[in-house]
Amino acid sequence: MSRHINTIGSRQKYWLYFVEAAEVSRIKIGLTGNLDARIQAIRTSSPVKVSLLHSLRGTARQERALHCRFIESQDHCDWFNATDDLRSLIETLKHSSRSEISSLFRRMKAHPLKRPQIAAWRKLEVAS
Asked: Where do the domains of the chain lie?
């Protein structure tokens, strides 16, 4: 499926996934309609071994909320530094019920700005 998922209605359900590239201490937070094909594509294109840490049914809004929540540790696009905070959230998601996950995402707000705007905003904030 195309990376244009974020333009689709944010309530549509997809697979929200976390893939780890342990050798470089990075975790990808992504969204796809076809989880098996996406994981295979990542494995095929990655120069290092990757493994699926967790997946759950999710929405584009939830993916954006996670990206915004971990913007400080963003490395490149959907890849984030594998911080203790990110690992802890993944473990929480693994062991939570659907209602607990829904509650967690309701508290986690997606920033209204798009990613490039957020990066520019962060740079201005630091320069101030």
From this structure: 3-127
Q: Please spell the DSSP secondary structure of 103-128, one letter per residue.
A: HHHHHSPPPSS-HHHHHHHHHHHHH-
Distance CA(19)–CA(28), nearest Å, equals 5
pLDDT in tens, 66-118: 999 999 999 999 999 999 999 999 999 999 999 999 999 988 876 555 555 45
CA neighbor of 68 nearest in space, from 125, 18, 31, 115 = 115
DSSP 3-state assignment of 90?
helix
Residue 100 to residue 56: CA distance in whole angstroms: 13
Q: Which of 69, 59, 55 is nearest to 109 (CA)?
A: 69
Find the helix packing angle between 60-69 and 98-107, rounded to 10°: 60
